[in-house]
Each structure stands twice: as structure tokens, then as C-alpha cells.
Fold:
Amino acid sequence: MSTNVLERSESFYTTFERKPGADKLTTHYCPGCGHGVLHKLIAEALDDFGVRDRAIFISPVGCAVFGYYYFHTGNFQAAHGRASAVATAVKRAHPDSIVISYQGDGDLAGIGGNNILQAANRGENITVIFVNNAIYGMTGGQMAPTTLVGQKTTTTPRGRDPLNEGYPLKVSELLATLEAPAYVHRVMIGDPKYVMQARKAIRKALKAQIEGKGFSLVEALSTCPSGWKMTPVEAKNWMQSAMVEHFPLGVKKDVIADREPVSPQPKSNGQHPRTARDVKKALDVPTEGAHTFQLPEVEEHYKYSEIKIAGFGGQGVLSLGIALSRMGMEHGYQVSWLPSYGPEMRGGTAHCHVKLSHEPIGSPLVADTTILVSMNKPSLEKFEPQVKPGGDIFYNRSLIDTPPSREDVDVIPVDATEIADRIGNTKVANMVMLGAIIAKTGLLEKEAVLEAMAELIKRLEYVDLNRQAVNAGFDLVPSL
Ligand SMILES: Cc1ncc(C[n+]2csc(CCOP(=O)(O)OP(=O)(O)O)c2C)c(N)n1
Ligand code: SF4
Ligand SMILES: [Mg+2]
Structure:
């Protein structure tokens, strides 16, 4: 246990080298602010539980945005309100990590209100520290969802009026009504006896996560002397009287003792499930009927394929992306598919981002296109310059009269629309492209693709048509 309060925890940097300016010893928080005390309680708990090396602190947007200056742990800084969503991703990708989503009231209850509701409702095995100071501190004191009735802020200069602004949101009480959360507790960063209660609650919440008991949230009422336009002592007194009256302290939900551990268990080789098939196995989902393909041998540059597929809305651009990613998944690749909706759906250009990778995928966004599939002229003009040197451009020669001019990429002309028309349906031009892509790259095995068509194409009468299209596109490539 940490006994000397004057010493800094290991989980807290001794000097804040990431903080700009000459002063590397004091935090950026105002005198009398509750954030610093909360940081200290969290850092001490991480030390005492011996989890600093696997702790990941998610900073919000708000005064705690610079959490990474101080916490000697893994750090992320999330976009406004998204900390609980980022925490979800981090925890799922690294189930052994101890993830702390640290969020203010504007961040968690305002812009991120739905995120926290969903994360709590899913019972993510994360710990949320919710810093309720009843105001947007960082931006100079605007009304927050938790601002008290009658409280003056820069946006409620006559005081919050429930008829106009509604009532202060009781987040802990709200989340405690949900089935999934294991622990929800409201504490206060006030006089020492309250700080000690907060310390205990934070430890209990973190311990719950360490033991895999599910979602825990500690709401800490906290002072903001600057936003409230008070001295630190006035602020503490106001919090301990007015705030507590509306936000009663105490445990709102505690079912930790009844909970079985929820985090996915490591596989026998010590690794956590990664692919969909691994997850199915880990969950003991019957795999009969599921495909059991091996990752095909491909050239090195196809091992992280970033594919952009573009054309008119209605050309099957998005469904070609789905086909590639679904079949890629069955082959054992890490995959992602990101559609771009919008006016495209009404006849403009549509596109989607697909990744097929031997490695885990960080972001579904295709930033370095290695394979471009252009179904029409505007999409080729738009995306041709983005293709990486050494990449591939498949273009629909039936509708594009000017071929790509790039000389540092492989250009594959495919008469997709013409072939589809010959087969009997213009709509399968996308599957002609699919055939050409797998023939050129070897990313997917043709037999597996043809077999999977039965599951992919909803209307049975179109399965054969689509298979013919894939075959036609496949046969085209060697002759080019
Ligand atoms: C998307 C977006 N919208 C608005 C802002 C401006 N903004 C920065 S901090 C903040 C509110 C922070 O309040 P809170 O979460 O209560 O944190 P505190 O500063 O009080 O600790 C807002 C609205 C932003 N940075 N990003
Ligand atoms: S503005 Fe308020 S919340 Fe932000 S550092 Fe100052 S006192 Fe703390
Ligand atoms: Mg706030």
C-alpha cells in the first residue's frame, strides 16, 4: 500500500516531460480543482494492484484532455464523448489491459451520452471515472447536462431553468437501472473523509475490472472553482451542500459478488481469440457448414491489401466490397469494410473501403490504396492518383474510354459491363470484377468463392448467374 502521501506513485510521472513550457512539476489544473486529487487516487490504486504495465488511460476532451502528461501508463486521447467507445475497442483488442475511461460531465453526459449508455448496457469490462463538476470547465463555464437548477453559467446567466434547459441528469441513477453494469457508485472529492470514500470506490471499481466482473463506473462530484467563479473553499462548500443535495452520494448498484468473469479467456496457446473463426471456437459455436479455408499464398505486397472500390450507385460497388470482406473473413484474413454513403446512393459516385490483411487492422479507412477498382470514369479520375506505386488498378473498360495514365502501377482493363450483359444481367458486372481481382492477386481461392456464392446471394435464381460472372472475370486475366 502507498503510505507516504508526499511521494508520487509510479503510475504518475515524477516530472511531466510531455507538458510544454518550463514548468514540468505542477499540473495544468487550477488551484482547488478536483481533477488532480482524482488522478492521484487512480494512480495509487494502479500501483497497489500492480497493474501499471497493462493500464491504459483514456483521456477525454475537457480539462483532463492532457491525462497523458501525467499517467505513466498506456494512453489514448479520445475525441469528445467517445472515450467509452475507444475504451471498448482497446479492451476488446487487448483483453488483458486495464482500461480507464476518464470523462467529464460535458464529455460523458453531454456529447457522449449515448456512447456511455451503450457501453454500460453492453457491460464492457472497463472502469469509467465520471468527473461531475456540473459545468464545462475547459471551455470557460457553459451549462453541462449536470448543471444544477438555478446555477449560473455563461450560457445560463440567469440560472438553469428546467422549463428551458431541463433538469440535471442523474447519470449514476440512470445507468444503475441497466441490467449489465456491475458497479455504479457516486462519491465526492471534498473533505478528507469523502476523499477516502472515493479512494475506496475507485479501488473497488478497478478490482472488479481486474477480476473480469464487468462494467464499473465511479461518479465523482468534483470542484471547478474557475468555472463556478468561486474560491477553492467556496467551491468545496458549495459542492458539499448544493451539489450533494441533488446528487446523493452512495452505491447505486453493486452486483460484483454475483458476477462470473466476463472477459474472453486466453486460448491454450496464451493468445486471445482474434479471427471470427477463433471467436466461434472460443464460444463453442458449432462450426458445421462453415468454411475451413487456409490463408492462400500471396505475394508480399498483398498481405496488407487496401482496396478502394468505386463507381456509380447501383453498380454493386458496396456489395462487391461486402463479398470481398465476407469471403476474406472465411479465408482467415483480418478484414474490414467501410461504405461511403450519401448522395452517391442517388446516382452519384459511390465507394467503399475494404481491407484484407494478415495483420490486425488499425483503422478501416483506406489511406494507401493498393488496389483500386473503378467501375466508371469519374471514380477513376478521382481515385487514380491515390494508388500506391506498385499497386493495381482494375477499370471497367466498357464504360471508361480513357485508360489510367499511371505507369508505376499494374493496369488491368476488364470489360465488366459488356461481359455481364452477354451473360444476361448488367448487375453482375461487379462479380466479373471480383473474378478478375482474385485471378490477378490470388487473394481468394476461386472454388471457395464460387461455393460461398450460395450463401452470399440472397435470391437462389441469381447464384448461377453470379458464378458465371466470377468465372468470366477470372478467365479474362491470364489472357491480358
Ligand atoms: C466535437 C467537439 N465539440 C466541442 C468541443 C469543445 N469542448 C471542449 S471541452 C468541452 C466540454 C468539456 O466539459 P467537461 O466534459 O465537463 O470537462 P471539464 O472541462 O469540466 O472537466 C467542449 C464542449 C470539442 N473540443 N470538440
Ligand atoms: S476550469 Fe475547472 S475543471 Fe478545469 S482545471 Fe480549472 S478548476 Fe479544474
Ligand atoms: Mg465538467
Remarks:
- The longest helix spans residues 192-210.
- DSSP finds 17 helices and 13 strands in the chain.
